Amino acid sequence: MVFLSSARVVLDQADISRAVRRISHEIVENSRGSDDLIILGIPTRGVPLARRIAETVAQIEGHPVPCGALDVTLYRDDLRLREVRALEPTDIPAQGIDGCTVVLVDDVLYSGRTIRAALDAVHDLGRPAIVRLAVMIDRGHRELPIRPDFIGKNLPTAKDETVRVRFVEIDGVDDVMIDSESVGDADAG
Amino acid sequence: MQMLGKHLLSAGDLDRAQALMILDTTAELASVTERSVKKLPTLRGRTVVNLFFEDSTRTRLSFELAAKRLSADVITFSAKGSSVSKGESLKDTALTLEAMGADAVIVRHGASGAPYRLATAGWIDGSVINAGDGTHEHPTQALLDAYTLRSHICGGQGDLQGVHVVIVGDVLHSRVARSNVLLLHTLGAEVTLVAPPTLIPVGVESWPCSVSYHLDDALMQADAVMMLRVQAERMAGSYFPSTLEYSRLYGLDAPRLELLKDRAIVMHPGPMNRGLEISADVADSSRAVIVEQVANGVNVRMACLYLLLGGAGSQAGGD
Amino acid sequence: MGAVVLRGGAPYGLDPHDIVIDDGVITAMTPSNQSGSNALPAEGVELELDASGCTVIPGLVDLHTHLREPGREDAETIATGSQAAAMGGFTCVHAMANTSPVADTAGVIEQVWRRGVEAGIVDVRPVGAVTVELKGEQLAELGAMASSAASVRVFSDDGLCVHDPLLMRRALEYVKTFDGVVAQHAQDPRLTEAAQMNEGALSARLGLAGWPAVAEEAIIARDVLLAEHVGSRLHVCHVSTAGSVEVIRWAKTRGIPVTAEVTPHHLLLTEELVESFDPIYKVNPPLRRAEDVHALREAVVEGTIDIIATDHAPHPREDKDCEWAAAAMGMVGLETALGIAVEVFIESGLLTWRDLADRMSTIPARIGQVPDQGMPIAPGSAANITVWDPSPQGPLEVDALVGKSGNSPYLGRQMPGTVRHVLFRGRPSVVDGALA
Prior knowledge:
- The structure holds three protein chains of three kinds.
- Chain A is of the alpha/beta class.
- Chain A has helices at residues 13-31, 46-61, 113-125, 168-171, and strands at 8-11, 37-41, 67-69, 101-109, 130-138, 150-154, 162-166, 175-179.
- Chain A has a domain at 13-74 and 92-159: Rossmann fold (3-Layer(aba) Sandwich), CATH 3.40.50.2020.
- Chain B is α/β, with parallel strands linked by helices.
- A five-stranded parallel β-sheet of chain B has the order 7-6-5-8-9. Chain B has a four-stranded parallel β-sheet with strand order 2-1-3-4, with helices on both faces.
- The chains are: A alpha/beta, B alpha/beta, C alpha/beta.
């Protein structure tokens, strides 16, 4: 990854760790201890985040929490604007999502279009009782009426700024960086 | 990453990365078939035309289903009972389709190279997918064959490095054989062609495969046997003396099945001539994955349609 | 008509001369650097043509052209074909017999001959069919055609092969009566059923039925032995393989009276072009390998192949604007033949202009027994003259072709020059690069 001199770290590893714990507690509290939680991460970086949240919730609750991945590429509304994208893995827990509380997890919430696509994808997979949204960063500039239920950090940004969340599982390090030189959001959502 | 380019005309055009991209995309799409809502909105608003000059219910339906599962609008133009059968030229048919706004044309034609003409003559703007041209190629068949092999022999992942595939039958006239030899080689498999010398093309030495005239020897090393359809009409061209002799020497029957390794599979692109190149016993045995090939065909074709039409690059005039 | 003066052209690429033509004959030739006015007639000059910087050779003679009339006037007529020939520097063409009706009787022969005379642009010499309707079953009335006003001496079923060995023997024997020659299209029909391109690794890969070299070579081998046995002249049309060259070479060392021709496209283009599946490259015999092209060039230089002949084969656009298998076989060639020959032989230094003139004018005239064509550029010769301008040309455009059909594989290609003037029996058929 190219380091641009204008980039600055806004969350470090400790901050992320704390945010994961807090989000997990909020999820547990919000679901009132129900046992039909399913955590689905949106690739790419929503997936390791979902796994950490699921593990933490499992620790809190004392029983395993099903966790998976939901690729939303095929549901996006902006496919024709760019080169065709490779599909990412989708892995839905075997019991399905009917009647469950699905918590969608993504690293950055931006225009809201990714989540809209995710809602369409979830809708085709089954009929969950409740759908919630957890994100590490909410950077504003929503284009659709989508709001997160669980937030790591609110990060007001300018449109020409870039927000990058990095996780050890993928990038070898945990942090969130903001950069004023626009490099193009890889996972803009 | 460079995806597939605008057209899918030949298996030989795909490099290893592109071939794996198609197979991996197929794996993701396969789960769609298992859901209750077997539909994706991805190609909504796109028009896909099936242009079938040769009769082929199986391939045509496969492509139709693939396109519909991606929510594309599908028009089927088949040779019988259309202006094509009244002598309309390929060019005029293509111009008509262009006027209807086809984003992709899936073409099956009896003349080798017909898809190339459609792709390069300037009659249409959209993507061209070769669904089988004469005795030249059938790239989506090779892709679904590779996908089937990968599922059974390689745990559904990666390439086909070291997998030994034996292809048996009328190689000379087989577009399935040509596409398979190219694609299997690209994916690292070892291919052996088995046929009487009259059905092996001149110049096969330049192909990335071995050739044998003896089926029994080849079967013993095979991880997969792919039986090609043999047309009885070939006797008229003196390619073999009788169907009986052909079956005796090159047909896959129950005794020959015993020669195969434990986990080897039997494949066939269909339609089968039960009793000629493959016996009924073998076709119905547990080693035969022929029905699965058909299912995989739909998913592979969904992957191809997605990768060709699912982005901006496929549009000629822009959004 | 008064005298025509061709000024400053170099006969056979040698020293520039001023050439005076009168009454259809070259009357005087003087070197251009001598003071002009003394050498020329003071009055009676009707036309002066500037040939400075150009090469002057005898008018080209094509032993193999398809003019399509009667029957396929949508592709070409005798008139348009004559125009195309003139623009290519030809003053004589032999029109093949595979018309509709076939030229297998004196009646059709004389019709073609008369249309050529009416057009009056080149000498149209009709070729007579060997067998009735080209069916290969029964000899056509070769004698009647020979005695006709067209004085046919060249007979060919071209388009098809005279494959029956007995019939080929009879034809070779029969034409001895009038010292005719049988021109064979060497293609064993059984080995080339539905063939689409040269048989080899490429045809195997492209899934196109192959046309094996042996189907040509085996017929030539048989025919040269027949010609030797009966003591008659054989001419081999459009030789396309290295193997055929070897057979002909062997036959000539044995003293067999065989002559052979090659087309410009077989001297330049190879089968790799077929990978595009563009039917502009579909031709019979098919484009072959680089080794074949190389062997054919050597054979022309050596004389094993005696002449270059175009096999000009016009087809209407719809017969090429389709998939390969449905497309007609053939390329037009009259207007580009000399340019290709210059590129292959003159620019490379493989042949001198005199050698090339032999192979495109003098020798074809001799094989076809055309009395006043192919004569040397010298006083007393019939004035069938071609003037070649070596100034490089822009890419060839289909609109530049005057023939009726545009199926040329050289569209978009830079040509190494152009035909500037042509004199046919002393009268200009082409002036300054355009029809007169």
